[in-house]
Write the structure tokens for this entry.
Amino acid sequence: MSSDPAPEERPNERSEQESSLFQAPPLAEQERMVEAMLFASAEPLSTGEMQDRMPHGCDAAEAVQLLRKRYQGRGVNVVRVGDTWAIRTAADLGFLMSRETSETRKLSRAAIETLAIIAYHQPCTRAEIEEIRGVSVSRGTIDLLIELEWIRFGRRKMTPGRPVTYVVTPGFLDHFGLETPRDLPGLKELREAGLLDNRPPPGMIPGPEDDGEDDSFDPAPDQEDMFGP
Amino acid sequence: MSSDPAPEERPNERSEQESSLFQAPPLAEQERMVEAMLFASAEPLSTGEMQDRMPHGCDAAEAVQLLRKRYQGRGVNVVRVGDTWAIRTAADLGFLMSRETSETRKLSRAAIETLAIIAYHQPCTRAEIEEIRGVSVSRGTIDLLIELEWIRFGRRKMTPGRPVTYVVTPGFLDHFGLETPRDLPGLKELREAGLLDNRPPPGMIPGPEDDGEDDSFDPAPDQEDMFGP
Amino acid sequence: MSDTADRQDDDMWETVAERRAAEALIVDVDGFEGPLDLLLTLSRTQKVDLRKISVLKLAEQYLAFVEKARTLRIELAADYLVMAAWLAFLKSRLLLPPDPFEDGPTGEELAAHLAYQLERLQAMREKAAQLMARDRLGRDRFQRGIPEQIDTARTVTYTASLFDLMQAYARLRTRDDFRPFVLDRDSIYTMEEALDRMRGMIGYGGDWVDIASFIPDGWRRDPKKRRSATAATFAASLELVKAGRATLRQSDTFAPIQLRPRLRDEQ
């Protein structure tokens, strides 16, 4: 008890929590808790974050699955966003929400294409984006996408110059309604068609570090991880 | 449906909406709509406002009642706010809306020194602490130690100005694993523990009680008084 | 240049309307996002699967475009011209029989890569469009309008061990012990003290005085103190002589040392 600095601040909760130390609340109750937390938050929450706030012994992951089922087909749905969960209105009811729509900035073609290239090729360097688009990428385009919190810096590539890479964020997944980057439309087809390969121009002998395939920065595991089968 | 600002963006919904002009959607569907609106709205909505946004023939008031029933006992409830409706966290789950972060911080040097002086010299005035530390003691340092319940006010000193004194508390003894303040190691033990490794000139080894302070500075009698058997 | 390409070019300039349209295409060169974008646009006139595109025909179209742009004196960015040069090279590679002694990629390989680049760019454009057409947050799907404030109750636990406490106290006490070092001076009379005392006593002019008379009262009995005071007074006397304020004399070895303040005009 001496390690507890302020037990007298919340005596009730404290004792509630303690009494439940060895007996987690029923699952239905846990579901209610997850429901309350997801409703209250505009941002997606991880099961870890939720579990931290729940009484001892709760299983937020299981409760989320129950809740998700409960909200299937309802006006709001429990959606997965990467490793996190959120409640979002059903897409077919968007017309009701016209008043909530805030003026969204019109994105330039360069920004949209750059975003798509990063999403499908991540982790992706600026040089790779430029190679695919055939033009240089302006600083402002990348800045805008970072500002929108749709992309962020990934690890540096272990190629000469150690270029930074870009990857998409959970905010990107949330915005475009994707559970994981694997759910990007047509990803499998593109990969099968070889269109996601880093194919060097003929005549260029790909060195061991030429396309970042070296051991210390092998993009494959990342992609496997994110886009895996 | 002139309220739809971008009908050309979602032609399908548009036509769906039009086909429903003369036939209100099923009540279950209306309930979904109300659910989505209440969820997404930045402020509570009246049934009138909701009905304005809903397809022709809908009865928002009825849909709200259905929804309210559905959420009874759930983690969030549909509640009436004046003439309007809102979704709110169930009252019993309010505790989930606070995140507890605990942080372990090391006591500042000023605080630990002040505490040490009070422990070794109690009852001890602020002026005495300052004399020993050689710098002034901030109000915040004393406040923090009081807040931690490691020190408290002792009796006023019978010297001009009748300054307040500070003494350590049983909580202090508990935290530091001492039975009485007399268990604090003296300078001899400190030296043996290697804490006073610089050898002061001979004849200059003041013990904790041996620094020429007046009698009231002697911790022994008062401690007897405070924590005595 | 093949006949078909020439005829096509002629056709392009047949009517005023078409000519205007073509000019618009050229003048609007800024509207293209680089040579690859232009090539992709041109490839659409072939109306075939990008994988079956005739790169040779495409190269000719591009070169014709650049040529037209030049006759219209339209400034073309350097990369358009670089592409033109490369396509001219590619065209020659595709038209001439392969040189068995020459290293490097064949025309077909180069053409295949260009086709691949176009296909990849086209694919990315389609995906970008699909992405933007998804049910997007804030347009089709919405988050909670009144998110509830999660108040963070931060509990700070301060830690300090008994060792910290002892160390802090030891630090304070040790600092006391090591205040600027001062010798135990109970029985030491310094030259500075002697000087101060003597300066105050001698004034200007006067008789010879035994320097022992300058030793303060308390310093005469205790031998330790007397020794210190005598030495200090002697040293101070020498200082006064050095400063020209006094003269010293001693009649004999071990005889008393006498001091006489110097007169002002003696200096």
